Amino acid sequence: MQRRFTTLLIPVLALLLVAACSSGSDDGSTGSGADATFEFWSFTGINQKADVERYTKAHPDRKVKLTEVGSTAETAQALTTALAGGKVPDLALVQADDLPKFMQTPDNFVDLASLGADAMKGDYLDWVIAQSSTGDGRIFGIPTDVGGLAVAYRTDLFEAAGLPTNRDEVSKLWPTWEAFIETGKRYVQATGKSFLDNAPTSIYFQVVNQGAERYYDNTTHKPSYDQNPQVKTAFDLTLTTIAANITAKQNTFSSGWTAGLGKGDFAVVSAPSWMLKSIRLNAPATEGKWDVATIPGGAGNWGGSFLVIPKRAKHPKAAWDYIAAMQSPAGQLEQFLTTGSLPTTPSVYTDQRLLDKKDSFFSDAPTGKIFTESVRNLKPFHFGPEDGTIGTEFLNVLTSVEQGKVAPDKAWSTSMSNVKNAIRG
Amino acid sequence: MRRPYASGRRTPREVTAVTTMLPAAADVRPSPSRTRAMRLPVRERLAPYAYVAPFFLLFAVFGLFPLLFTFYVALFDWNPIGEHTFTGMANFTRLVEDPRFWGALRNTVSIWVLSTVPQLLLALGVAHLLNHARLRAAAFFRMSVLVPYITSVAATTIVFAQLFDRDYGMLNWLLGLLGFDHIEFSASVLGSHLMIAAMVIWRWTGYNTLLYLAALQAVPQEVYEAASVDGAGGWRQLRHITIPALRPIIVFTVVTSTIGGLQIFTEPLLLDPTASMTCGAARQCQTLTLFLYEQGFGRFHFGYGAAIGVALFVMVVLAATVNYLLATRIRAERP
Fold first, then answer.
1. Stretch(es) of chain A classified as CATH 3.40.190.10
2. What pLDDT does B320 receive?
3. Which of B69, B73, B81, B267 to mutate to test the interface with A (most CBs of A within 10 A)?
4. Total structural domains in chain B?
5. How far is residue A138's CA from residue B221's CA, in Å, rounded to a whole number?
6. What architecture (CATH level 2) is domain A148-300+374-422?
7. Structure confidence by residue, pLDDT tens digits, A18-34
8. Taking CB atoms and an 8 Å cut-off, how many pairs form between chains A and B?
9. Which of A5, A104, A425 faces B82 most closely, judged by CB atoms?
């Protein structure tokens, strides 16, 4: 869901772009050795270019043809279209919510265990690598990053509202989500301005990702969104937040949200690790006015991505070499230090360089320390094929409630019928 | 087109035009030329078909085949990268039961009415004004009405979405100045439909204006002058000269904008980037084509998407038939 919001290109244009790029790619295979060049499809907004540049600098004999297809959803669409009968890339980045769909038809991809992923699989957080593995030991994707949870807040606005500004004290303000909402009320009372950007993304999508189970039962692998108490808790907490009237009602990544971020229309945004990049990008003038506190309610993860190699890829070996070099624990640590993507390899979580990493945009917050804490003790939950769809339907109903278009007491039953209808086929 | 003028008088210029046309037309008809054609060698008789063949070949590949293939796919549970299971009419029965489909149909019809009616009326008025004899810099004004049409749809949509924005949009700024509360246009059904209708009107009015203007140019200015002399004002001239003269072209524009209206896609897709495939959280402005796109290319239910396509096809054919029947009736009713 999350990065799916990123810059929206017209998908058709994106496809054309892909077609245009792939048609001219033959020069690679005629170069120095068949496996020196490979094609890589990524999505926009996560600065994959920096990684590729790092790789080609270290391996001057290799060439990577990187295409930033579009948003995460558009990239998954382009990949599906290519798998269905077009020219496939040698390597593709797939967002965690799109992965289960592809895992339904694993035969479209190379089993990475055969290329050496078997030996590496212990390097990764077990609950992450589990998402791209099948029960019989085959591995179809290598996780590149995870999205640990935290809260970003404006120190200048907190000060004006008479709230503490130090990140440890702020974290202590909200051990629970209820306390978080109370803090919001205090802020609104003091300033007359909104506390939070919106409830559906900043509350629902955080809380629902803090549970031990989400939309599917961990043992039966059947949809259980209608019975899982964690989903209902997250849903009701969102309704409470909306009723408290502390949000600016700006959908995450909408133009109003982007404008509000810069103008200080709201003081708090729930921020999985990848969100920091969006804040930095969309509100560059607010540098130094932000800080990062821990999230109420404990550990959780939202997002992350996987690298996959399509079965029909022309240069699977070159693509694998890239994965092996870049997604090793050392590679992911380097990646975190340059682009801020949170590693999926717990062995580096205690590395001094990660712990010492400070982000000047966010008042020198130790982001490595804050975010790794939220993913370290997570229990794995089962991802089902319709996870993305179910999440979107819940989010849409809650957004409608926030916009005043759906009555709060009808929200749950509306969600149930919408989800049921959406996943019927 | 024979007697489009209320006056019924035939102007001298038209009479000469008809008489000079006649001999030329008469030349083509007699049988000698026809028999000459019969004597042509096979190759030359086939030549015209060869000349038009490229279009039909391209149409067969990019038009007819996808059309027929869509009918075929609609009978399957079709995963583009997985299995294809024959399910017969299941996709269609599901479609009839799907509230999202009926919602999309409602949105499509509503946006079509809200955009087509004002757009054609506006085009008619503007064409009438642009055709005025005393208009200065006529070419400049006539060309400038086409500018919105050649502007990219994506750019238009993004600009309009900002104009209508809740907090920082110009429209809400004006409402605020006048003392009204801000309106979140994109969140409501009517508001989002009006937004899209405004974009469609903005884009297509100029195009239809030029069509009307071209037809109006065929009406001699003398008719208007005569009407003025007889004491008919601008409004009566519009009613009794302009509109009757434009009847066939009006029918044409209604048909094209109906077909276009049923296929509105880019505007709703780009209206709300945070829920692009549904055009908002409550699918408040998701059109049929956008619903098709969501199911086919967002969710990869190719079979279901194809079924929506078939339903859309049937609707376009129905709309075209109704239009055609209306058009022939209008033609028959002419004085």
1. 3-146+302-356, 148-300+374-422
2. 84
3. B81
4. 1
5. 81
6. 3-Layer(aba) Sandwich (3.40)
7. 444 443 333 333 334 55
8. 87
9. A104
* Residue B108, min C-alpha distance to chain A (Å): 20
Question: Per the CB < 8 Å rule, is A254 touching B154?
Answer: no
Contact A381, A212 (CB under 8 A): yes
So what's the pLDDT on residue B34?
52
Nearest Cα neighbor of B205 from B124, B260, B128, B137 is B124
Mean model confidence pLDDT for chain B? 85
Q: Residue A321: its pLDDT value, please?
A: 94
Give φ, ψ of B166 to 5 degrees.
-65, -50
**B215: containing domain:** 12-29+91-333
For residue A49, how many other CB atoms are within 10 A of its CB? 13
Which CATH number is A3-146+302-356 given?
Answer: 3.40.190.10
Q: State the pLDDT confidence band at B324, using cuts at 50, 70 and 90.
A: confident
How confident is the model over B102-116, as pLDDT tens digits? 999 999 999 999 999
Sign of torsion over alpha carbons B4, B6, B8, B11: negative
Q: B271: nearest CA in chain A?
A: A254
What residues in A contact B188, CB-CB < 8 Å?
A: 405
pLDDT tens digit sequence for B253-272:
988 888 899 999 999 999 98
Residues in chain A: 425
Residue written as tokens 């624990």?
A329
| Whole-prediction pTM | 0.84
CATH of the domain at B145: 1.10.3720.10
Query: Does residue A256 belong to the interface with chain B, where contact is any CB pair within 8 Å?
Result: yes
Q: Band of the pLDDT at A72, cuts 50, 70, 90?
A: confident
Is B52 domain-assigned? no
ipTM: 0.83
Q: State the amino acid at position B76 in one-letter form.
A: F
Is the pLDDT at A377 greater than 60? The verdict is: yes
Q: Map chain B to HEC letters.
A: CCCCCCCCCCCHHHHHHHHHHHHHHHHHCCHHHHHHHHCCCHHHHHHHHHHHHHHHHHHHHHHHHHHHHHHHHCCEEECCCCCEEECCCHHHHHHHHCHHHHHHHHHHHHHHHHHHHHHHHHHHHHHHHHCCCCCCCHHHHHHHCCHHHHCCHHHHHHHHHHHCCCCCCHHHHHHHHCCCCCCCHHHCHHHHHHHHHHHHHHHHHHHHHHHHHHHHHCCCHHHHHHHHHCCCCHHHHHHHHHHHHHHHHHHHHHHHHHHHHHCCCHHHHHHCHHHCCCCCCCCCCCCHHHHHHHHHHHCCCHHHHHHHHHHHHHHHHHHHHHHHHHHHHHHHHCC
The alpha carbon dihedral of A324, A325, A326, A329 has a sign of positive
Give the residue-averaged pLDDT of A308-319: 94
